[in-house]
Amino acid sequence: MEMEFVSIPAGEFLMGSHKSDKEKDKDETPQHKVIIKNGFSMQKTEVTQGQWVEIMGSNPSYFKECGKDCPVESVSWNDVQEFIRRLNKKTGKNYRLPTEAEWEYAARAGSMTRYPCGDDAGCLDAIAWYGSNSGGTPQPVGKKLPNAWGLYDMIGNVWEWCQDWYGDKYYKKSSSTDPKGPETGSYRVIRGGGWHYSAWLCRSSNRNSNDPSYVGNFLGFRLVLPQVISEGK
């Protein structure tokens, strides 16, 4: 099974929304510095239907007709954990979901604007499938432009599960170094916006969440490895 990854460098960034963003939600503030102490590797695209079938043996996706190169969807956070368990057993590696901080750091790819491509939602058409251009369905991965770090579809196509529990006031008390979310919770973080959502939900700082058992045809994921690996491996 071919799963391509890119190396994400260690560094720091401002996580959350600037106070001047009129579309921000309260849970996106305060904007705060986050340090990603160690580099890691992130999957270039969302996990595809073909990749899921190879590990799990069946395709849960609502949009099966979209094809094997489309993102797998209709998978819960719990389903994803089973996929990761089987994948790690097969490969001997330690794949996992990104933390919320890792996800936003990678999505921004050094940008400080509302979207990875700029402050104007008009730039989204070049990088993302969302409500205005998707045609009402997910699309094959990797067809839009990547961000500055070579990651495709971080914004739009399907929302992506993150590892963290969600906390609406978490930013006010989170660690500045490699934050990993609240210790407990009822919902898991999802990020990135999706194929039938508005542009403002595709902002890099936008936060959302869902029950870890929830299944939706707008919701998928991508993987990370905590160590840096060579591109394409």
From TrEMBL:
InterPro entries: CTDL_fold (IPR016187), Sulfatase_Mod_Factor_Kinase (IPR051043), SUMF_dom (IPR005532), SUMF_sf (IPR042095). One of its GO terms (molecular function) is formylglycine-generating oxidase activity. Residues 3-224 form the Sulfatase-modifying factor enzyme-like domain. It comes from the Bacteria. It holds the Pfam family FGE-sulfatase. SUPFAM superfamilies: C-type lectin-like (SSF56436). This is Sulfatase-modifying factor enzyme-like domain-containing protein.
